[in-house]
Amino acid sequence: MSVDEQVLSYPIPNDAALDPPAEWAELRARCPVAHVTLPSGDRATLLTRYEDVKQVLADPRFTRQLNAPDAARLSADGGGVFSSEMATIIPDSGEEHQRWRRLVGKWFTAKRMNAMRPAMIRIAEDLIDDMVKRGAPGDLRAGLGFPLPVYVICDMLGVPAADRDRFSYWSDTLLNLTRYGKAEIEAAQAEFFQYMSDLVAGKRADPGDDLLSELITAGGPEDGGLSDIQILVTGMALLVAGHETTANMIGKLVSMLLADRSRWERLLADPSLIRTTVEESLRFDANSGFGLPRYLNAETEVSGAVLPRGTTVVCSMAAANRDETAFENAGEMDLTRSPNPHLAFGSGAHSCLGQALARTELQVVLEVLLRRLPTLELAVPVEELERVEGLAVGGLREVPVRW
């Protein structure tokens, strides 16, 4: 049965750690607006073409209001980062959204990231030292990919180093699709919420040089700042967004380069390709997780299909990034590709606030690894790499390497 006659399960099952599911190319060619069934059993509409995904991400009629009564639930238990009350506390559109982005975005400019670069390099050096001490083979995800972004975002938010490790579990429960039950998710979210409340209260009493303190100092909504609950939720959202996605991407980036080791050799010979390599790995990533869900608050048309009000649309940026009409030789990883207008960070007013941070972290990791561990290689065949399952983000369970 062809893709246009059946309702696919989404996320589309796929065993290959780094390759896209075969259905993507078929969907783009024959069924760009497809009906899918989510883990909750609810129906949604999946978009896989570059132009369609870009159009929807820029269209204000496609909102983040996934807790609307007729919105599709992503997981059977509801909750999760896309449809929790948290998602509604950060303003979704209009002047309020612009103000939120201005206040928070000041911390994520390319200029500020450059200033943080030496600290990131030190963190990467220390983590690699520890990996080398423990000896090969090692797990690059656990040893470097995971801790580096957590340490960086915790430093930015002013979270004490001793508390860093608690966040990965809280973060996982917020990104749940099928891994955790309702009671477990609610308990973890309550703990996370309490932790952030205490942290914000502590900073109000004794501000430091960090993002949360600066948001508090900016005053409340009447002064052009954020309310207490908005500051608290912003902190939670940045911790989740700022560690999970980049932690996974570090593992995938290195795996893609080592899966065909001529790519790694090429970078060793010419480290000036690091910047374009990072962009290409973001485009080429076939294991980026769920994609971006959007709720439609007015009837509209995409690719000739009429979508009624109340439709939940899932934008697969990863499928769109493999669209041959947008990228020449889209199925090839080209380390020199430029320009590279991939959609890994979304597009339009809601494009990823932390993209300069993610780019800097990925560049730093690559730079330090090439210098410190030039003989790096995968310690298992690529076929044995396993995907992270049951969460809204894509990644590899571990990245076994030797050097």
Structure description:
By secondary structure, the protein is an alpha+beta fold. The protein has one domain: Cytochrome P450 (Cytochrome p450, Orthogonal Bundle), CATH 1.10.630.10. Helices cover 48% and strands 9% of the residues. A hairpin with a 5-residue loop joins strand 2 and strand 3. Helix 6 crosses helix 8, helix 12 packs across helix 13 and helix 12 packs parallel to helix 16. The model has no long low-confidence stretch (mean pLDDT 91).
CATH topology: Cytochrome p450
Largest sheet: spatial strand order: 1-2-3-9-6-4
How many alpha or pi helices? 16
Strand content: 5-15%
From the helix content, strand content and strand pairing, which structural class follows? alpha+beta
What is the annotated CATH architecture?
Answer: Orthogonal Bundle
Task: Let me know the average pLDDT.
Answer: 91
Distance between the termini: 46 Å
Give a short account of the largest sheet: 6 strands, mixed
Q: Say which CATH homologous superfamily is assigned.
A: Cytochrome P450
CATH class: Mainly Alpha
Cα-atom radius of gyration:
21 Å
How many domains in all? 1
Number of strands: 11
H/E topology pattern: EHEEHEHHHHEHHHHHHHHEEEEHHEE
Helix content: 40-55%
* Global shape: globular
